[in-house]
């Protein structure tokens, strides 16, 4: 079983976004910082979740079909949209994410408060600050 935590950070003035991925498996952590193309935080949350699950799927290959993922997000729109398979303004993002999830045996999505998502949150903020420094 894999525990996956994601978070996105967006700077509204610049439109820059970045994400953090924290993957835990067999007591081993993998951390990743990712530059995102999204210019608003909701889209960025969907984008980082899709990237994280895509990378895990690609890493596991055929074994993904036998894998359970506990996906933790502090984004209520991502969590609720996955439960409903619907989001009024983000349906394309929901569909992409559901498509990637279908490669796994089971993906359990859990909304967590920000304080329980500090690892991914910190990675996202570090990645965003690095992007802002690159632009200056």
TrEMBL record:
* InterPro entries found in the cross-reference section: RNaseH-like_sf (IPR012337), RNaseH_domain (IPR002156), RNaseH_sf (IPR036397)
Q: Which residues form the RNase H type-1 domain?
A: 6-127
Classification via Pfam families:
RVT_3
Extract the GO molecular function terms from the UniProt entry.
nucleic acid binding; RNA-DNA hybrid ribonuclease activity
Which domain of life does this protein belong to?
Answer: Bacteria
Q: What name is this protein filed under?
A: Ribonuclease HI
Species the sequence originates in: Levilactobacillus spicheri
Q: What is the lineage of its organism?
A: Bacteria, Bacillati, Bacillota, Bacilli, Lactobacillales
């Amino acid at each position: 079983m894999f525990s996956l935590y994601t978070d996105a950070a967006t700077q509204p003035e610049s439109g820059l976004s970045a994400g953090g991925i924290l993957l835990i498996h067999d007591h081993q952590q993998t951390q990743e910082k990712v530059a995102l193309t999204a210019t608003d935080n909701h889209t960025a949350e969907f984008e980082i979740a899709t990237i994280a699950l895509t990378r895990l799927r690609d890493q596991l290959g055929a074994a993904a079909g036998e894998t359970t993922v506990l996906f933790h997000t502090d984004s209520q729109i991502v969590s609720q949209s996955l439960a409903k398979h619907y989001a009024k303004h983000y349906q394309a993002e929901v569909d992409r994410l559901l498509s990637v999830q279908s490669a796994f045996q089971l993906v359990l999505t859990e909304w967590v408060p920000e304080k329980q998502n500090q690892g991914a949150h910190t990675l996202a903020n570090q990645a965003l600050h690095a992007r802002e420094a690159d632009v200056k």
